[in-house]
Design a protein that fits this description.
single chain; alpha+beta; Histone H3 K4-specific methyltransferase SET7/9 N-terminal domain; Recoverin, domain 1; two-stranded antiparallel ribbon; 18 strands; 34% strand; flat
Length: 388
């Protein structure tokens, strides 16, 4: 009787689907238990502290475990750190600020432990994007340096000020974490350089004012003066007491000093022309309006963000300069592109244009401004013809 009763109960449960459901549940081992628990505990909004200390995720109360030794307390969205939160890393570093989809994004402060006491001190305060320093921010380097300025993708880029541990102070432009563009370096010993930089070295026109009262004005390359004038600096009436009294330099006794100096300057510029055009930021080579005009002309022909060599020839012709294929190949080489390149980007097009303008200015005895005026007229004529 008992066996028959059990059989009838089993049939009834099977008919209701209860027995099959239980069996399926017990047999479903393809999904790890920790993953199932984590799915039940989707983190949204403000949560308690999350700890990464073991191998697996456990619990449904906001506690997470792994081997990484990281803790996080803050806001979540769709199981990702989003909003305001504080994270402490295994190294002892601490980040406090905004998050987006698990990455530091927005305003935030990074701290690091220093000294035997491991006391936290600020390392960086400012903007972040996709887990990298981005935007305006202040960085306190462990070496004692202090940078205040702009960042892009984790590197100093744009205008900024760097105070060195030895007392030197640089105020100017940066590119990819290096001094590039116009900038002033005030040395702790009283010397001061004002001029152009490239890849963290003095490159181009610049003046070095010595604490002794002398000054060198000329052309620089590879961080060294190459050609120029070395003379006594004129005193500033408002700071007369700050300029040391020095002996007057003997006069230069050359038959044609101006011609000799101009020839030396031309020689340095000519030898460094391709190097500078290849490496100098586009914003230094062209004014904003010129860059925008070049971008419009390039956009009319581009495909997949590039143009062909034939189209590059056409653009040069539109700018008022017929360039033979052999010369165009040499220009491409000068700016770091292969003469057999099938496509030229906007950056490459702008650098080829800059070289052409420089050559034109040299050949016609024009200065940089006049050569760029010629460029503006060429772009204007192109726009007018297309409009017509």
């Amino acid at each position: 009787m008992t066996n028959a009763t059990n059989f009838q109960v089993g049939d009834a449960l099977s008919a209701l689907g209860i027995l099959n459901t239980t069996t399926k549940t017990l047999r479903n081992t393809s999904v790890p238990l920790w993953r199932a628990n984590n799915a039940k505990a989707q983190k949204v909004g403000k949560r308690s502290t999350i700890y990464w200390v073991g191998k697996n995720l456990v619990g449904e109360d906001g506690t997470v475990t792994s081997r990484q030794g990281t803790t996080y307390q803050g806001e979540w969205l769709d199981n990702k750190k989003t909003g305001y939160g504080v994270q402490v890393y295994p190294s002892g570093d601490k980040f406090e600020g905004q998050w987006q989809e698990g990455l530091r994004h927005g305003e935030g402060t990074l701290w690091a432990p220093v000294g035997k006491a491991q006391k936290l001190r600020k390392i960086y305060v400012g903007g972040w994007r996709n887990d990298k320093r981005h935007g305006k921010g202040t960085c306190f380097f462990k070496s004692g340096q202090l940078f205040q300025g702009w960042w892009i993708n984790g590197k100093m880029h744009g205008k900024g000020t760097l105070r060195y541990a030895n007392g030197d102070l640089y105020i100017g432009e940066w590119q990819d974490g290096q001094r590039s563009g116009q900038g002033t370096l005030n040395k702790a010993n009283g010397d001061c350089y004002e001029g152009f930089w490239l890849n963290d070295q003095r490159e181009g026109s610049g003046s070095l004012f010595y604490a002794s009262g002398k000054v060198f004005v000329g052309e620089w390359s590879g961080d060294l003066p190459r050609a120029g004038v070395y003379t006594q600096a004129q005193e500033n009436p408002e700071q007369a007491t700050c300029v040391p009294v020095t002996t007057t330099l003997p006069p230069v006794r050359l038959a044609l000093p101006a011609e000799v100096l101009e020839g030396a300057l031309r020689s340095v510029r000519r030898s460094r022309k391709a190097f500078r055009t290849k490496n100098v930021p586009l914003t230094t080579l062209f004014a904003d309006q010129e860059l925008e005009s070049l971008r419009v002309a390039f956009k009319d022909l581009q495909k997949d963000d590039s143009i062909s060599i034939v189209e590059l020839e056409e653009l040069c012709a539109q700018l008022g300069t017929e360039v033979p294929k052999t010369r165009l190949a040499a220009l491409l080489t000068d700016v770091g592109l292969s003469p057999e390149a099938q496509a030229v980007t906007f950056d490459g097009f702008c650098r080829v244009t800059a070289l052409l303008l420089e050559e034109e200015a040299t050949a016609l005895g024009l200065d940089h401004t006049n050569s760029h005026q010629h460029l503006s007229r060429g772009l204007s004529d192109t726009s007018d013809s297309e409009a017509g």
